[in-house]
Amino acid sequence: MRAVVLLSGGLDSYTAAAIAKADGFDLYALTVRYGQRHVREIESARKVANALGVSQHLEVGVDLRAIGGSSLTSDRDVPRDRDLAAADIPSTYVPARNTIFLSLALGWAEVVGAADIVIGVNALDYSGYPDCRPEFIAAFEEVARLATRAGVEGTRFHVHTPLIALSKADIIRRGAALGLDYGLTHSCYDPQLDGRPCGRCDSCVLRARGFSEAGVADPLLLR
User: Fold this and answer.
1) Looking at 55-69, 71-85, 99-113, 202-216, which range is the least confident one?
2) Number of Cβ within a 10 Å radius of residue 219
3) Cα–Cα distances in Å, from 174 out to 15, 168, 170, 171, 213?
4) Among 16, 40, 53, 20, residue whose Cα is nearest residue 187
5) Could you report the per-residue pLDDT of 33-43, keeping only the tens digit for each?
6) Plot region of 210 (φ>0 → left; ψ -120 to 50 → alpha; else → beta)
């Protein structure tokens, strides 16, 4: 069984991919260079892909800086020390990012003959992004059925979201059980010049809280 997995180099996508591998899928990893403000996560994606032993790792460039609208694709300040319980969607939201990423994964899935796509979205410990919700995933599966030759000819595409109902702590526990090296990953939205995480953006705070609640030491902080 082949599966195209969206691999960002972050903790979540690494775990989702590892779960798919444990379930018997032959992984085709897709990493998108979308004009993000740092390349550290691309480097991490390469390390993670190598650790997973994927059959192929494809990097695709889609520069979303021209569209703008996000502090991840511009010089706008990344929010720090934000109240994670706030109802507003933060500036780190990248307009339609997961729709774009899944569309690229869907196109490649047709080419390699895969009916399965894996994405590490999470609807619990996240920053309120609308494209991380189960209803979005269900809607995209319907798009895949209607908008592709394979779908019209009877292929039923399935977007796997193994982390969608897990807390960050549960994700880390699952990864630890699979023997994953989270020292390969990168989570920070706005790392320091030497690559160290800022420790204050949403992603850093969620990661720290997850490791603390899981009772596991974050290997990035031990180096």
Assistant:
1) 71-85
2) 14
3) 8, 10, 6, 5, 13
4) 40
5) 999 977 889 99
6) alpha
Dihedral angle of Cα 172, 34, 189, 47, to the nearest 10 degrees = 50
Map out the domains of the chain with their CATH numbers: 2-222 (3.40.50.620)
Quote the CA–CA distance of 189 and 167 in Å, as a whole number: 20
Give Cα separations from 133 to 29, 50, 63, 170 (angstroms). 22, 29, 24, 18
Instruction: Give the tens place of pLDDT for each residue, 85-110.
Output: 888 899 999 999 999 999 999 999 99
Give the C-alpha separation, 49 to 68, whole Å. Answer: 29
CA distance 202 to 175: 21
Q: Which residue has the tokens 């897709």?
A: 30
Q: Which amino acid is at 139?
A: A
CB-based contacts of 205, cutoff 8 Å, min separation 6:
84, 199
Least confident of 36-50, 115-129, 138-152: 115-129
Q: Which two tokens stand for residue 140?
A: 């995209």
Q: Which amino acid, 8?
A: S
